[in-house]
Amino acid sequence: MDTMLAARLHRTGQPMKLERVPVPKPRPTDVLVAVKACGVVPNLMNVLTHWQSWFPELPLPKLPANFGLDVAGDIVEVGELVQNFRKGDRVYVNPGLTCGSCPACRADDTMNCTNYTFRGYFGFGPDSQKQFDAYPFAGMCEYSTAPQHNLVTIPDNVTYEQAARYGYIGTAYAALRKANAGAGSTIFINGLTGTLGLGATLCAIGRGVTKILGTARDRARIERVKAMAPGRIEVLAQDEGKNVAEWARAFTGGHGVDATIDCLAPGTSGKFLMDAIYALRRGGKAINIGGVGEKTVMDVHWMMDNQIEFIGSNWFTTADGQAMSAMAAAGLLDLSVFEHVRVPLAEVNRALDGSLFRNGGFTNVVVVP
Amino acid sequence: MDTMLAARLHRTGQPMKLERVPVPKPRPTDVLVAVKACGVVPNLMNVLTHWQSWFPELPLPKLPANFGLDVAGDIVEVGELVQNFRKGDRVYVNPGLTCGSCPACRADDTMNCTNYTFRGYFGFGPDSQKQFDAYPFAGMCEYSTAPQHNLVTIPDNVTYEQAARYGYIGTAYAALRKANAGAGSTIFINGLTGTLGLGATLCAIGRGVTKILGTARDRARIERVKAMAPGRIEVLAQDEGKNVAEWARAFTGGHGVDATIDCLAPGTSGKFLMDAIYALRRGGKAINIGGVGEKTVMDVHWMMDNQIEFIGSNWFTTADGQAMSAMAAAGLLDLSVFEHVRVPLAEVNRALDGSLFRNGGFTNVVVVP
Amino acid sequence: MDTMLAARLHRTGQPMKLERVPVPKPRPTDVLVAVKACGVVPNLMNVLTHWQSWFPELPLPKLPANFGLDVAGDIVEVGELVQNFRKGDRVYVNPGLTCGSCPACRADDTMNCTNYTFRGYFGFGPDSQKQFDAYPFAGMCEYSTAPQHNLVTIPDNVTYEQAARYGYIGTAYAALRKANAGAGSTIFINGLTGTLGLGATLCAIGRGVTKILGTARDRARIERVKAMAPGRIEVLAQDEGKNVAEWARAFTGGHGVDATIDCLAPGTSGKFLMDAIYALRRGGKAINIGGVGEKTVMDVHWMMDNQIEFIGSNWFTTADGQAMSAMAAAGLLDLSVFEHVRVPLAEVNRALDGSLFRNGGFTNVVVVP
Amino acid sequence: MDTMLAARLHRTGQPMKLERVPVPKPRPTDVLVAVKACGVVPNLMNVLTHWQSWFPELPLPKLPANFGLDVAGDIVEVGELVQNFRKGDRVYVNPGLTCGSCPACRADDTMNCTNYTFRGYFGFGPDSQKQFDAYPFAGMCEYSTAPQHNLVTIPDNVTYEQAARYGYIGTAYAALRKANAGAGSTIFINGLTGTLGLGATLCAIGRGVTKILGTARDRARIERVKAMAPGRIEVLAQDEGKNVAEWARAFTGGHGVDATIDCLAPGTSGKFLMDAIYALRRGGKAINIGGVGEKTVMDVHWMMDNQIEFIGSNWFTTADGQAMSAMAAAGLLDLSVFEHVRVPLAEVNRALDGSLFRNGGFTNVVVVP
After folding, report:
1. C41 and C120 in contact (C-beta within 8 Å)?
2. 3 state SS of D78
């Protein structure tokens, strides 16, 4: 176990190369994980090709670099200060790296680290390269180190492939948490059957959200989602041409919904985001976790008049992940709906082919070492 | 509809008398409700006989007085300023009356009104009599007025008898809310199959609580409760003689439970309350909604060392009740488990017979006009 | 005291007429207040002339109508159910009327009432006219009724004129509360010396906000504000042409400010609002209480990447008002900075002359019966 | 800088020995601090002599061990992963060590780490020895390593001696934070002029608490404290023999105080703790940070009837410490009141002499290398 296979991108636009490299050593507060499955999200292709032109303030790791956001695997080594994990523990690695010493990190508000960085994906801060340097291997490889803070235990009834899907499910989970969505809530999900939207729906069911509304395109998928919680889910097909806010408000006695969760795909017009906000009740919350990239015209006076909170939300905490594991263990989060597409590490470049996602959010592409 | 039948207690220790009295008129912000079912809780007999000696600071209404805590019925008249209710609406009336002008009331913290008062039961403040005077008829009668603030709508799939059970279910719901109990939580319920404890269990299931632990006495009821959410509920029979804290901690990898909900019956020793607190994790919350009346020896230094919050919680808000209705409408709060014992208003004194509660928390005694 | 003088607007664009009308009677949960001072805000002229074209969804009362938002006076009569107020009590009347029966009102979330309505100003809901009808007299008159819920007691060291300024101070106070601004916070105020901005500054000082940054135009007023809390306040004059975000970030070690409070005047470009948002730290909050009316282009992806919350905030609660009174009583909220312009009720139309506000936020125009 | 002087206790009851030992090396996420002042609290003598008999569940480090809780000093070396600190930075080291991998640590709830441990003092968990082993040198030495997470920057206007007092001030600060004490609050402090109580008073002033009530013994110190914020502080001398709850309630119109902060010394009867709780308003919070060690009889039914929260609170977060530094920098936290007693490291055993604390909470004993 001195060396391992790892895929690395040497140049934007070219395929990743498979290389044999030394297995990294865990630092005192790290573990070493043998990767069993690495999730691939539809946005990865955007990150690898367009990111620096779309969002120059969100840096990629210096090339050559290893990619791969969502890792599930087994712990094979623990650092000397790690007390609560053992060799053999099955874990999901939350890829959100934090610097550990900025005011937010020291305030236990790690999600708001000035240099928050997605291992194997991209960073949010000017010094994210330091995080990339500290954890140069992510998911498209055989072994990677991870900070103990980022480990989520996986229950027995969750497979590595399912756990490799935690990323977008967790992003949706965090949004629901910020919306305080649960017993008695009515929420609206923009893009209900997509990768993020399906995660939002599954988590909303598990959290006991009473009424789940949303929009989607594909009618077959709409029916499939509605069957997950009969009577609690209502979906407006986008081609019905109805006014979204009016449609949603009708389910709430006209008062409006408690929260909107925006799960729109990259490239979508911001118009749909604002359309959904008009469905909110006075005091409602709009959580944006979707891919709308364009600068968007917002009705700020209406939002003030109606005490709307527009909350940008990014990824999820380790605690969110642990709650998802507990829900899955208890049978409250149904991860059996996913259709896994397994791509061997040796064929890693094939995993970036967007056409693999042929069944919307139900498709789960994983790279398997 | 000028007069109605109402039961009134004229003297402690004597039976209530059935009398014909004028139907009260709703004030501008009130409604008039035709009572369809009035819940009777085991504690009512204590209130009517021992309350002033047990808790002299909790005043009863001046006699003669009408009693009856949990009312479900139909709105038959609305005050001139009531905008969102109509004749014919099916409602539960939250009996918690508030003064409306103390600092807490004006701060929208109505549960902490200085003179919070249970209509038809007892008060918490020195001036509670003013609330009793303002709403002299409660549940053991044909009609009663209620502030619009206190109305909870009942969904179609909830009967009046079921809604008349909202009181103790809601008390448990509020405790779970304060414990932030939901996805990922492990809670412990002291007295799991009693009137309060069963409410806590039903609400915990609906809120997506992952693991529900507790103690109870009757083994048949224990099995019945466990069958409600297989795999999520574990119960320790009180006669097993085990250390409660150790037993509960074993389900949490030794860390301790997130919250304890104390639902012990009046007359129980406070020792059991403190025993359960030792099951909490560092930072855990103990919510006391039970009937322990004796002054109780508490390990305050251990509670400080472990950052324990001991929260006295009293009844529930109208919003809690509305969330329960939404849960019931969505099929997440199962009210079908109750065995109703209907006592006609004409035989109201029979409803106070404690032996009617022969099936613990599953029994639901209601007075029906 | 059967009749009183009241100013009423009969037609938009015409002066208000002074009329003799019957003194209104308080309902059981109301009080009657003898008006001693009624605040006039710069926006009132906009409301009276442009509101229905600017914001058709924010209804004015049907004409003829009495106007006047911020009332300070003496209680002269109490309704039969009012327990905590007496004749002679000095009070400020929070003009925010609520319906009392919508889901938000029954959930004690009165600020989010579906038909929230400013007495004597304008409404936010489709049925606001019902609130106007229930409380037809506001501030530009001698007496008006008010719900007990809306009363804020005034301490001895606060004058009626000062209390008549609570409206915009309270709006700012609520924004600071939502920003959790206090010990250790760095906040940024857009429009620091205006009517709202000065309120935000005074409240921030009283709440112990450590560092107060902002922009303003008038250099004399800037110096005056800075002298209020030497060393804690830094102001960028708008004509300095600096990048606002860079300027503000420099005071925070580059991390960004905790919150922005937007207090811009009606008619200002939304560009300034977004400029300030870029000054926020990851996880920062932007509270908008200002007058930006135009639809505004927002960088929603940047806001998501940085976990920004954009919070529309509207007015303030009675509890906020009571906290302000406590601060003033303790010497922590300095209301001595205002320069009062007293206009007799008989000359009420003169109070609408915008030129009275010759000293920005320091000017306080009140109508005095 | 290869070796240093360090005081170590080899046997309970014997003096500490001064020894020359190797300077520890910082791990990748640590820094090395040159100690400039180490605070000594009155409780240290209890910890060194009685702790294991008083609280056997709170382990001391294995002997020989270095002690000293509150360290202020200069960073002289940073670990390879430390991004936001530099050599020469002046810091206070929060001594609360956390394991980093238990559920609470991974949930960013580090204060509730299962094995929370005070470096140089004692631990709270069964595995605290692992923390002691990882950071064997604390404050009574020349250099010690510290996790980056625990560093609080010290502003220029705060001396090392003042910063070495952060421990108990911070404990009080955290209690006030949990009580949400600020503008508009009335709080009651049990033991107002003691080491903890004085910290609570100073922080309450800085946070803008409107009214500060409390009890104390020494009349000269009472007057000194009252002069810190004239008109906002009222103190009951314990020998006045008044009913504490009645006395405190009289300042609140009879409603009761918002929070009590219990700062009683070790050995005090729990009776005083419960006496103060009766001063709370319905919904009030009692925060216990004091030394009451005996099991205490509590009126749990009254606490439930009045919705009292009894919160055990332990120490404070790094964020609390950073807020205190910001307050001090802004002139809102007055640290000039302390009378420092400097004891050279070479005479360290003299620092344990309780008689040094001759001026109550005003005395600040520090060991200076």
Report:
1. no
2. strand
All residues of chain A having their beta carbon less than 8 Å from the beta carbon of residue B326 are 183-185, 210-211
* Cβ <8 Å between B304 and D313: yes
| Location of structure tokens 């840096």 | A59
pLDDT confidence tier of residue B43, bands split at 50, 70 and 90: confident
Q: A84-120, pLDDT tens digit by residue?
A: 999 999 999 999 999 999 999 999 999 999 999 999 9
Pick the closest to residue B80 from C27, D262, C161, C140 (CA basis). Answer: C27
Q: For D84, phi and psi rounded to 5 degrees?
A: -105, 10
Give the chain A residue nearest D105 (alpha carbons): A149
| Chain C residues lying within 8 Å of B318, measured CB to CB | 106-108
Locate A10 and state its tokens: 């040497």
Measuring CA to CA, which residue among D212, D87, D211, D69 is closest to residue D141?
D69
Residue D64: is the preceding peptide bond cis (ω within 30°)? yes
Structure tokens at B217: 């006495």
- Residues of chain C with pLDDT below 50 are none
Task: Provide block-wise average pLDDT over 10 residues at a time, chain A (369 residues).
Answer: 94 94 97 98 88 92 97 98 98 98 98 97 95 96 98 98 97 98 96 95 96 95 95 93 96 96 94 97 98 96 98 98 97 96 96 87 95
Q: How far apart are CA D143 and CA C266, in angstroms?
A: 59
pLDDT digits (tens, 9 = 90+) for C43-61: 888 889 888 899 999 999 9
The span from the CA of D25 to the CA of D31, in Å, is: 8
Q: Who's near C17: CB < 8 A, 6+ residues apart?
A: C7, C8, C9, C10, C64
Interchain CB distance below 8 Å, C29 and B319: no
Tally the C-alpha atoms within 13 A of residue D100's C-alpha that lie toward its C-beta: 26
Residue D209 near residue C207, CB atoms below 8 Å = no
Integer CA distances (angstroms), B157 to A30, B154, B161, in order: 53, 8, 12
pLDDT tens-digit profile of B187-207? 999 999 999 999 999 999 999
Q: How many CA atoms lie within 13 A of B27 on its CB side?
A: 15
Q: Please answer yes or no on whether D184 and C231 come within 8 Å at the CB atom.
A: no
Contact A183 B327 (CB under 8 A): yes
Neighbors of chain A by Cβ distance (3+ pairs < 8 Å): B, C, D
Angle between helix D195-206 and helix D166-178 axes, rounded to 10 deg = 60
Nearest CA-CA distance, residue B29 and chain A, Å:
21
User: Half-sphere exposure of B190 toward its Cβ, with a 13 Å CA cutoff?
Assistant: 31
CA distance A225 to chain C (A): 27
Q: How many CA atoms lie within 13 A of B327 on its CB side?
A: 28
pLDDT at D323 over 80: yes
pLDDT tens digits for range B161-183: 999 999 999 999 999 999 999 99
Q: In this structure, what DSSP letter does residue D191 have?
A: S
Give the H/E segment covering residue A328: helix A318-329
pLDDT for the residue numbered A43: 87
Q: Which residues of D touch A318 (CB under 8 A)?
A: 106-108
- State the pTM of this model: 0.97
Tell me whether residues B208 and A211 touch, CB distance under 8 A: no
Residue pair C140/C345 in contact by the 8 Å Cβ criterion: yes
Question: Phi and psi at residue D58, in whole multiples of 5°?
Answer: -110, 90
The reply to whether residue C127 touches residue B83, judged by beta carbons under 8 angstroms, is yes
Question: What is the rounded CA–CA span in Å between residue C323 and residue C317?
Answer: 10
pLDDT at A69: 96
Suggest the residue from A176, A210, A257 to mutate for an interface test with chain B (most B CBs closer than 10 A). Answer: A210
Question: Does the distance separating the beta carbons of B255 and D103 come in below 8 Å?
Answer: yes
Task: Over range B150-165, report the average pLDDT.
Answer: 98
3-state DSSP assignment of residue A133: helix
